[in-house]
Amino acid sequence: MKKEKNEGRRGIMAPRIRLGVGVLTSPLQLTEAPSIADRDTLQKRESGVTEKSPMRLRMEALIKEKQGEIVAALQELDPATKFRTDTWSRPAGGGGISCVQQDGSVFEKAGVNTSIVYGTLPRPAIEKMRVNHKAIDPDVDSLQFFAAGLSLVLHPKNPNAPTVHLNYRYFETMDTEGKCNAWWFGGGTDLTPAYLYDEDAIHFHKSIKDACDKHDRGYYPRFKQWCDKYFYIPHRQESRGIGGIFFDDLDVEEKDQEQLFSFVKDCLSSFLPGYLPIITRRKDMAFGEREKQWQQLRRGRYVEFNLVHDRGTSFGLNTPSARVESILMSLPLTARWMYMHEAEKGSREERILNVLKQPVEWI
Description:
This protein is an alpha+beta fold. It has 12 helices and 11 strands.
């Protein structure tokens, strides 16, 4: 009997699993599957980003490239005031780069941000998005999503130089393996002057129209009208600025993914040629206390729109683990509110107000 017991112990031993209070000790350690964000990071490290990469990785690469180009060009306008660059990450995946210049000789505040977000959409959000995107699966309780965007706001010091805003973004929903099942692009750019110079408005709008016309001659008039409607302040009954273009939810029902990606690239590339000549003309013009006070009042309107009506600000602030400093980068460093202020009849201030109450076709 003793011999048999010894022989019985000579076989292959099964792995020992010992359970304690919250402890598992075993040669077989269980690990969670990598997240979509983790897999994307690995793919970028091993293979880089090419034309065959998923669109989410190509859009991320594009906005980071354009951010670098824009920051470099703006830095040349004011070499003495360096941009502060903050790189940050999100616990659920993604992160961003915030580049901000403050109290400079050209810009009172200038921000150029990229943001990458991985997350999960709850069922109420899925149902809301299906109104515009029927490709989204209606029979799931949650969906993985990815969002990438480049956002820019420049508030010049000189009241004769206009504030400018730009945002281009991409959004997609995915299954648990990272396969895209719905996607869309959005974005635009718009100009907000305190004092109106027609040549600036015409140049800015023409640069955008040229980019649009490369892809669809109906884009500029359509997206210009959309911009005029979107950047409207109902409680003031006036527009935030003199417009540009704005679009959202452009998906496969509009054009295919490659065509829309090319459109967004051309829009981004048109920004510096459209704005740099304007800021160069205006940044050193003479101004006095009256002009500065008016600029501050108009910036108050900018704040009102962004905090009350802007969907992007609302989405950002309501996203879990949001980086508030980057979201509110769009607000000016200073602004002003005066009780019952009225522009003088026949003044330059009254002229811009008249334009803001009735959008103009600049080209």
